[in-house]
Amino acid sequence: MALHLTWMLAFGLLGNLISCLVCLAPLPTFYKIYKKKTSEGFQSIPYVIALFSAMLWLFYAIFSEDAILLITINTFAFFMEFGYITVYLLYATKKDKILTFKLLLLFNSFGFGLICVLTLFLTQGQKRVQVLGWICMIFSLCVFVAPLFIVREVIKTKSVEFMPFSLSFFLTLSAVMWFFYGYLKKDQFVAVPNILGFLFGIIQMVLYVIYRNPMKILVVEPKLQELSHEHNIDIRKLGTAICSEINILIPQLNDSGKVVFEDQIAKELTKQTQEITNATNKI
To answer: How far is it between the farthest Cα atoms of the chain?
Structure first.
């Protein structure tokens, strides 16, 4: 019995430690958002659902027996998720802000408030624990399903930019620890969801291995210098060639007063021919 409790405590403490690392894993992402002052297309849905889940587990742990380890980790998770959502709202677009506020009102205000009212007034004792346990288990599954939105983006874009490997790795380890904690504590509401969490963690790590080195498309741009060499035009040669083909016709008056166009090139050639003829005659 003592050994059983020792192992349960060990897995619970390890679960707390690793779950804290899971909560800290998105810090580089939100630091990037803070530095660039833009949400860069990130979605707030996973963090809103995680915040809602932490609130539910806290509520469940309050009425459950020997659940101090659940209280500690979910308190930490609550404040971390609240901080992430706050940073997201500061730098998200107007459209994303409106969507996030709607989700917070739906899940964290109306949804959580309704669950609190119904369970406090309609259930008592162990039955209340059972009802809250089922609700927590369902929404824990939602927490593990939430990263599927990121998985879809990874498959669509063939890039793991929005799915850090550290998050997937620690999520898988956390699922293992909490499964054994719930199994040894005989708490099915803790053990069952973490089976699915382990499977989803493996899927994310496999996708990371597949898409961690995206294919780069090389675009060959023509060099301006090469194009300029191929299309150089010698203006002087062109001018000479054009000018050599132009016959200048100058209008002149003949003896009768009529205008006659005289070809200057032909006249020049005739003059040169006459000079050569005269020189020949002198010889």
So the answer is: 143
- The 10s digit of each residue's pLDDT in 45-97 is 888 988 998 999 999 999 998 889 999 999 999 999 999 999 999 999 899 99
DSSP character at residue 257: S
Helix (H/G/I), strand (E/B), else coil: 162: coil
Contact between 45 and 96 under an 8 Å Cβ cutoff? The reply is: no
Using DSSP, state whether 232 is helix, strand or coil: coil
CB atoms within 10 A of CB 25: 17
Question: What DSSP state is assigned to residue 158?
Answer: T
Residue that the structure tokens 């742990």 belong to: 61
Which residue is it, tokens 């983006």? 153
Contact 54, 20 (CB under 8 A): no
Instruction: Name residues whose C-beta falls within 8 Å of residue 25's C-beta, 6 or more positions apart in sequence.
Output: 164, 166, 167, 170, 171
